[in-house]
Amino acid sequence: MDLPLYRDEGWTLVDVPDIDTLPRPVWLRAQDLPPRHVFPMHVHPWNQFVYATAGTLTVTVDDSWYVITPEQAIWVPTGVEHTTGARHGANFRNLYVADAPDLAMPRECTLFSVSPLLRALIVELQDLGDAGDDSAYLGRIDALVLAQLQRLKVEPLQLPWPRNPMLHRICEALYDAPADTRSVEDWGRELGASPRTLTRRFERDLGISLREWRHRLRLFLSLERLCAGGSVTRIALELGYASPAAFTCMFRRNMGCSPSEWRGRHRPEMRRMGA
User: What is the set of domains in the chain, with CATH numbers?
Assistant: First the structure.
């Protein structure tokens, strides 16, 4: 996997925790990630529910990139190689979940919407910390967490990254300059390939078109920048939208609210992050 997310200067590697066994079937590990900190690629001998109560996380798994807001989390099954970083900082609240015959969770990485109840349970586990000595109470919370995990809504939003050298060049250029509006015809002329060939390769290798890939990239980058406190107008222009209204229309269509409303919903979390 060759993603450009962490290749620019200024990223700091964070040590992967040295844990041999889980103390309980559900175990919370809390860590605040400063801006531009990232874990190296690694695996766990248990499942992982990657979540942040504040800030945004960027998670890469296989050939896909996810941006995780406080409304979302990603399920990473046992043994799947992944990495997690925070471009602008995040309150990383991570659930480790042991395998069990009745777990009933996906065998592949899956993005979920996080329910208010699950978020409250995660915060409660954090508040209890290692000092929680009421095993019966902890057991009830663990059972509720597992029940909630099985009821979460799947969000089919990820950014696949190509292995094909030609597609890789296009995607990397768009990541570096998301306002780039070159069409598949423009890229075909530059790379010496027909528009039909590029279209087929995008749909075959990534499952989406160039237009949809660029759309998802801009959405992911907008979430990161909103969490960092950027203005709606500036973000719209940096990402190549003709106007803040055009950006707002895209954002509302995908997130169910305007950028300003979304940021207002997360303002308390952003204040804790210093944004």
Answer: 12-149 (2.60.120.280), 163-273 (1.10.10.60)
